[in-house]
Amino acid sequence: MNTSTAHAPAHSTASAHGAGHDHHEPGFWQKYIFSTDHKVIGIQYAITSLLFLFFGFLLMMAMRWQLAYPGKPIPVIGHALQAVLGDDMANNGVMQADLYNVFGAMHGTIMVFLAIVPILFGAFGNYVTPLQIGAPDMAFPRLNMASYHLYFLGGIVMLASFFIPGGAAKSGWTSYSPLATINDPVHVINGQTLWLIGMVLLITSSLLGAVNFITTIIQMRAKGMTWMRLPFFVWAQFVTAFLLLLAFPPLEAAGIMQLVDNLLKTSFFLPSGLVVNGQQLTVSGGGSPLLWQHLFWFLAHPEVYVLILPAMGIVSEVIANNTRKPLWGYKSLVYATLSIGFLAFIVWAHHMYLTGMGTRISTFFQTTTMMISIPSVIILTALFISLWGGSIRFNTPMLFALAFLPMFGIGGLTGLPLGFNASDIILHDSYYVIGHFHYVVAPGTIFGIFAGLYFWYPKATGRWMNETLGKIHFAGSLLFMNLIFAPMFIQGLHGMSRRMYDGGSTYFGSGVGLDQHILDLNINITHAAAGLGIFQLFFIFNFFSSLVWGKRVTSDNPWQATTLDWQTPTPPPHGNFTVEPVAYRGPYEYSVPGAKTDFTPQNQAG
Amino acid sequence: MEIPYTVKPRPDTGLYNAKVGIWLFLASEVMLFGALFSSYILLRVGAPDGFWPDVATGWPHGLLNIPIGTFNTAVLIASSVTVVMAWAALKAGNFAKFKGFMIFTVICAFSFLGIKSYEYNEKFTHYVVRLKDGSAVTGHFEHEFLHGFLEKANTRRDQKNAELREANAKAKLEGKAPKDLLPHLSNRFLTLDKFGEETVESVKMLVDIPSAFRYPVGTKPPALEESAKGSEHGEHAEPGGHVEKEIKLADVQSIAAFIPSTATFFAIYFTMTALHGLHVLGGALVLGYFAFFGRKMWREEPERLTNRVEVAGLFWHFVDLVWIFLFPVVYLL
Fold first, then answer.
1. Same domain, B165 and B74
2. Number of folded domains in chain B?
3. Nearest to B271 among A207, A210, A260 (CB)
4. Rounded CA separation A125/A119 (Å)
5. Contact, A400 vs A447, CB < 8 A?
6. Residue B168 forms contact with A (CB below 8 Å)
7. Stretch B192-207: mean pLDDT, rounded?
8. Same-domain status, B57 and B79
9. pTM, 2 dp
């Protein structure tokens, strides 16, 4: 932070202003709530989104209880739910269909928009990206603060929607029209209205964030930090930011139109002659339900790459560091990521094979869907080969990163039958789909998140997380994640629909043919989910106790890493670097023959 | 700590931060309006055959005021020119000239919004009457007549709502869902969908000639319009004129103002123009801020203010460009 020497006299006012921030110790509000420091904002994002992650998990646990034991009162929280949400939602502590729908829609919304994306993009992206490119902060620090505050506000709106009359949104996280427009005609301002308002806030937050990230990566790279010297994590964030920037606005447009449909009674997504409860709806009609689906999936498909690319970035950093050798095929990784970024925009309608949009369109989207699996396989292959011949350090972040590879592999491969429209006809809307995307997002992305949390924790706090607790957390998570999601493939292949609030017991014995042993898997899954929850307690305890009792790190670069994020004081001060960083080499110079140590930091000259 | 390249461009990209930022932001704006334009196309192409309001295309024509729209387009283009001149004045170091051009730009922006709200109001008080034989006419109601009609209708509404409230209170005790109360009727947003048929026997209407709407395939041209041409008011019945007609409410299926819920065309027209209007308003506030409060920054960091004006100007051009697409699409095509 060479502020005093770097300022030319021409900038005297600006520098005096900037220096003022450096020398004053800011108060609590400015330091923790209205901070413009990318690291504080990153930590704000991390804490908020981890809380949402936990909350989303709790929603799922309540739903899992209902699936395994339909019609039985939810233990512990059942009567509290009845007291807070009313008899319509939880009569005598039993989850009613409406509550199941509310929890289902909000589990999806919260996990995707309030937990995973903010933690990958908001938390890791904010904290690590400027450090890795050698920047003092983001390009627009105040915009960064605004992004977080909009995200927080969006979260509050979503949470508030649980408590309004009629309950929160209950038309699935996809909010398909006309269902989303007609399912609560009693309340003018209903859960769906708040869902849409919350989404508009979250989308605006993401858009501002995306503008900020791309500008930062283009403009703020340190001297010598050329594009091909960027750590792969930065590339992943870069492409992710473009996906958010260009894919989110159509959903914002769709959200505005659905809001207008709900409040001003227009018919953007309502077809002519729509009959609800035996009565023709008194709306002008002439709209198109397919239009909503197109606009929604135009975002929501790129969104899954938003969910996975930053996780791949984290895993790459952890793998390179703990194999002590360069990533295999760095350039292939970069180009594969860019290809994914492009192809992600032209695969969306593979979510809509069963809408009757026509076989030609289906064929096009089937083709692009198969094409996008190629760069994904390149990335996974490059990461697998990176392990070859490395002297691997099996610490907690590395264990999570290693588990990410096969778990994401299962998630990806099980997606292929869904991408072919012939096989999708059978699998569509079944538990197979749930199993597929949860393999990608839960043991895939969330393991990437855990790898990152264990990996950067020492940099952010100056203390280690406990290794033993971390390994227990890892082993339990890996076991139970698989016990939860693998049986879903079996259920799905037997035709169990994903939307039934009683876990399919309606079908049992009615001649439709779900066997008892398929239904009984619901009980196994619910037990496994409880097990997963118990093992997360090790993480939660570890995370907080290490803040106080964790072993202090003895070096600023405890993992002996090469990238610039580790060449700063611990934790990095406002402004990040004590001397202006210059990159002299690529990001992964591990075990260079003839070098004194087995790692050569990017800013080491010569 | 200081963020680099906030004012001076970065040598290898040739851009300062805010310029990269605004272009990215505009890219996302293109996607936002692009989605709305795509929706417009899809809704128009997919408008069902034989569907009100226009059988031939399923989409109404000629409902918007083209001369006013053209004038508004000119106003916005003029503001786009002056915003560049304001920026050029700053580049030349002339703050007073900058202020003049910028204030003119902001005046243009608010004129645009004023004209637009006049147009909106025109639509809100223009009605379509759909008859039970499937035909429809458009036109206006006389102010005095409408006033009396609304009074009666709202009295009736109050009675009905009182009954509904009682029924709802009962329903609540029995655990049933309550029913919606009837909305207050105003001369804007007037709809007769649900009630009001018995309040008066007939309505006097100034029917548009030619009526902006067409009629189901195979039926004769609307008796109303035809008879109007041959009536004693025939001399007024030229295209663009009005003819006063008495319409029996027994024949009426519904009466609705030109508001979003009346037809998908209005829905997308109001949504797109309102979103555009919000952009105009936001841009005008920022530009106005530079004009009236920019002097301090001009004295301290002239280059920074010039950059800000450039970036805001880029946004302003974008807003202008959206209108240049919007005008032909909703007014002319």
1. no
2. 2
3. A260
4. 8
5. yes
6. no
7. 61
8. yes
9. 0.91
